[in-house]
Amino acid sequence: MDHLIYAYRGDEARRILSSARDGRVLGVYFIGSTKTSTIPGISVAGATPELTLYTPAVDMEYLFHGRPLSLDRIPVTPKGIPTPALITRAALNSSNIPFLVVDAGSYVEPKIPHVDLPSRIVGERIDLGRALPHEAARNLFEESKVLADELARLAELIILGESIPGGTTTALGILIALGYEAWGMISSAAPENPHALKQEIVRRGLKKSGGLSSRNPFEAVARLGDPVHVSMAGFLAGALKQDARVILAGGTQMAAVLAIAKHAKVSLEGRVLIGTTRWLLSDDSSDLVGLVRMIYPNTPIVAYDLDFSNAPHEGLRYYERGYVKEGVGAGGTCIAAAVKGVAHQRLLHSIYEEYERLINKSASTSVDRRDLVD
Fold first, then answer.
1. C-alpha angle with apex 107: 125 to 358, nearest 5 degrees?
2. CA quadruple 309, 313, 314, 319: dihedral sign
3. I need a labelling partner for 4 at 20 to 30 A (CA). Which of 185, 200, 342, 364 fits?
């Protein structure tokens, strides 16, 4: 397992990954939308704030088919940088890891085979102080837990990833609503982290929802959260109940998943780690290790050491300038691929090949080539 960075509690991380090395691996990617992403300046996971509502569906369509179906373009930032789903797709393909998509409340239903949670719901703007109905938050947790009770029987190691534009802001909202002083610790897909805007939105929502923190995770999610983080926490609970090992594949948003699970009285000891990218870990504007120490300090953190400094395409080199950093389970999926024996150079070659396939495809289809920086 080369090119892994054991950022926090490395011995425990090695034990968890080694125990799953010869077992079956399954990727489970949750999607959902929060109208918080339509607030200008909050999310760059789409060419416009409104298009961020399409990104979760299109991310998964691309992950499944290698092309988008709900839009005629690959999800990109306004600068044309490709979705981190490109990294995830390359890691899944190079390792032959099967995966499943779970819709917790996507604004656009993806045109692929997937699982719909019965209580799926699009989250409202959290600055209004009422993101979800309390009943929906609790139901999403329980429905995901039941789903995991079944799926976790199929694998010893589960990758748990997400696609929800605006998710770092709602993650901050969840943590603040639960009483954690997480101000200034949450990451951003942009090189300049809009901490002030996120804090203003969360403070406004907190005030409108009563102003006091709560130790009830479903109340916290209902006030300042979204459908994805609570669903992931429920799935985590069900998977751990079946004795699976879980990689929470993402960045600082995984701290919110961890916090919801903790406050829902889920036993997290010894079977879960956060898997991310080097870019997220080295981001000076956020603090994943600090968040984990605050919430559940026994949780290991591992990063996959991807470096695009010498990538043959400019769109990938933007990752080295602080753009995107993580998403769609990219880092954790790369870690799982390493567990399955995929060498670093093979994975890097697969990523480059996938990018080149997109460029060639965009030249011969309706996908605008300008959406990919080359």
1. 120
2. negative
3. 185
Show me where the domains of the chain are located.
Answer: 4-368
Q: Give, in order, the Cα–Cα distances in Å from 3 to each of 15, 173, 304, 316, 342.
A: 17, 33, 6, 18, 11
**Tokens linked to 128:** 């209004």
CB of 285 within 8 A of CB of 191?
no
Q: Report the phi/psi class of residue 188: left, alpha or beta, with left for phi > 0 and alpha for psi in -120 to 50.
A: beta
- Chain mean position to CA 358: 22
**Contact status, residue 126 vs residue 224, Cβ threshold 8 Å:** yes
Q: Helices 134-151 & 227-241, crossing angle to 10 degrees? A: 40
Half-sphere exposure of residue 273, counting CA atoms within 13 Å on the CB side? 30
In the predicted structure, residue 348 carries a pLDDT above the cut 60? yes
Helix (H, G, I), strand (E, B) or coil at 290: helix
Determine contact, residues 50/166, Cβ cutoff 8 Å. Answer: no
For the record, the structure tokens of 145 come out as: 């837990």
d(CA 231, CA 190): 26
DSSP state of 122: P
CB neighbours (10 Å) of residue 19?
Answer: 14
The amino acid at residue 152 is A
Residue 185 · residue 287 · CB < 8 Å: yes
Q: Does residue 301 register a pLDDT over 70?
A: yes
Distances (CA, A) of 334 to 21, 136, 288, 346: 14, 32, 18, 11
pLDDT in tens, 198-217: 999 999 999 999 887 788 99
